[in-house]
Amino acid sequence: MRGYTRPMPDTPARPELLGELGERIIEVFRHLQAEVTVPREGLVHVTRSESDIMRIVMEIPGTTVTEIARAFGQHKSNTSTRVAALVDKGLLRKESAAADGREVRVFATPAAIENLEKYRDVWAEELDPVTPEDAERLAATVETLAAIADALAARTRVGEPPRG
């Protein structure tokens, strides 16, 4: 919640810190995600659902439509429609995964990688005025968040339904 900071004791317990971290990550994500879903000149606009698909495909190239659908708990037909839209936008390409051609593997295109780099520039512009000037502190924050993201990704396998 904007403007609200949960009061914390002088030395917060680990669960309190982790809960606060999770809440703050979601809050930052909400702001940065909005930048992806707003059309911008020179960038390929994607919907929230499409950006979720792009994240999985870029993390695990060659993921199948079925695996993507399972990861989000969606119907394969809905995911297939979103993948087709991303193919039309030039961000994904499909290859046959099986000899019978019924399943396809999905890969990001060079245009998708370029689009992500441009969005990283947008995110940098958004974050620059609100982050510490201290490069070491910022690098430590990035390193910590990267370690958390990598550990969570390692725990989650595409093709498994989401926990919950």
TrEMBL record:
Residue span, HTH marR-type domain: 39-135
GO biological process: response to stress
SUPFAM superfamilies linked: Winged helix' DNA-binding domain
Taxonomic path: Bacteria, Bacillati, Actinomycetota, Actinomycetes, Micrococcales
Stated name of the protein: HTH marR-type domain-containing protein
One GO molecular-function entry: DNA-binding transcription factor activity
SMART domains associated with the record: HTH_MARR
Domain of life: Bacteria
Pfam families xref list: MarR_2
InterPro entries reported in the protein's UniProt record: HTH_MarR-typ, MarR/SlyA-like, WH-like_DNA-bd_sf, WH_DNA-bd_sf
